[in-house]
Amino acid sequence: MNLLLDTHVLLWWLDDHPTLSKKTKAAIADGKNLVFVSAVVIWEIRIKQALGKLQIPKDFRKVLGGQPFEMLDITVEHAHAVGDLPAHHRDPFDRMLVAQAKVEGLTLVTRDIRLKKYKIPLIEA
To answer: In this predicted structure, what is the pLDDT of residue 100?
Structure first.
């Protein structure tokens, strides 16, 4: 299975936060699964950091680079796919994640139950 982590899931994983379910931790840790982190997740984290809403390590780039994750760039195809989505969710970061999951055939790992409306493969974190 190929997974795409939502922003909060990535942060919980990096922090070994107890909120992350055992099932989700196992899926992320399973070496048979490819785990992707989207550029949109990094973008959201950095925006929240710049606004003072999120504290991340000074060496965040290095911490992230030490994880067994694949980085997923945002493409023109992803941008077009966002325009084809129904308006179930207004958050542009989440909409891009949904579009990327659809285009790339990924299972989105999230706690945001509103994203179920998009009928994409989903693991509830």
So the answer is: 98
Nearest to 60 by CA among 11, 17, 18: 11
- Please give the order of strands across the beta sheet that includes 70-72: 70-72, 34-38, 2-5, 107-110, 122-124
State the CATH number of the domain containing residue 82.
3.40.50.1010
Domain assignment of residue 80, given as a range: 2-124
What's the number of domains the chain is made of?
1
pTM of the complete model: 0.96
% of residues, the chain, pLDDT over 70: 100
In this structure, the number of other CB atoms found within 10 A of the CB of residue 11 comes to 18
